[in-house]
Design goal:
By secondary structure, this protein is mainly beta. The chain is built from one helix and eleven strands; from the N terminus they run ββββββαβββββ.
Length: 119
Amino acid sequence: MEKAVGIAVVYANGKTYRTKPGAKYNSGGWNRTALVGDGAVNAYSEMPVASMVSGEFTLTSSVDIEEINSIVNGTIVFSTDIGSKYTIGEAFTSKPCELTAGEGALSFEFQGKPGTQTS
């Protein structure tokens, strides 16, 4: 039986961050929108979409929130427990991290150039 992704680890500029369940990777690329007129789809338009890695890290004393918040022009790697890795170059923290007390959770969101599968 095949194994499905269950655990993800995020590397931001080489530093390891353990994610809580629910971390997400979006490869970016293009959003396409149908252009409708006269009762039919006539064409479509395209708009670029940034790649994104988001979710929650487990917050420990070794996690530097300001360091995460200050990432610009970085490299983000989303690594799964089935061996696949996805890399986003020229990445940046797109919104400040948010801490949830009592849960040990630190929300994060990185965006950048379209991502690539690197293994």
